[in-house]
Amino acid sequence: MVGIEGPGWLTSEVWSKPAIILMSLWGVGSWVIIFLAGLQGVPEQYYEAAEVDGATTLARFFHITLPLMTPTIFFTLITGIIGALQVFTQAYIMTNGGPVNSTLFYSLYLFRNAFNYLKMGYAAAMAWILFVIILILTIIQFRLAQRWVFYE
Fold it and tell me: What is the DSSP letter of 119?
């Protein structure tokens, strides 16, 4: 059919971010492996004891699986937020910040200032600001984690 086009995944400022998000879903497999390792660390004896006590599947999930998975959830939460704040490669390779700077993420802007415009001091200051933001968010997460992360 003539005249029917799909979305301009990398040429439209509306579709460029969803394209990068969809491409980033490729990395979900590594998170699944981390969660699978966390699930394998849950002792089977807890489930057996809960079954003997008559706990339902939902009760076992909320009272055994979820509390014992909180360290894994906490780890993936911290690394996910840090990774989200450092998005660079996808935007650089796929769109180089365009179209209309719709994918000009902070890390890519930092890179441009350092190596395209040769504003090394400005880029270094931006890197320190990114470091401080990540540090503050991580400290907040660690403080909040004392309330909900269960360590044996």
Answer: -
In a domain, 11, yes or no: no
What is the C-alpha to C-alpha distance for residues 130 and 48, in angstroms, rounded to an integer? 47
Cβ neighbors of 119 (< 8 A, separation 6 or more) are: 113
- Look at residues 2, 78, 91 and name the one whose alpha carbon lies nearest to residue 34: 78
pLDDT in tens, 49-60: 999 999 999 999
The DSSP symbol for 124 reads: H
Cα–Cα distances in angstroms (integers) from residue 57 to residues 38, 47, 124, in the given order: 19, 9, 52
Domain count within the chain: 1
- pTM (2 d.p.): 0.86
Residue 48 token pair: 């057996």
Can you tell me the distance from the alpha carbon of 130 to that of 88, in angstroms, rounded to the nearest whole number?
13
- Closest of 72, 81, 77 to residue 151, by C-alpha: 72
The range of the structural domain enclosing residue 106 comes to 70-148
pLDDT tens per residue, range 75-121? 999 999 999 999 999 999 999 998 999 999 999 999 999 999 999 99
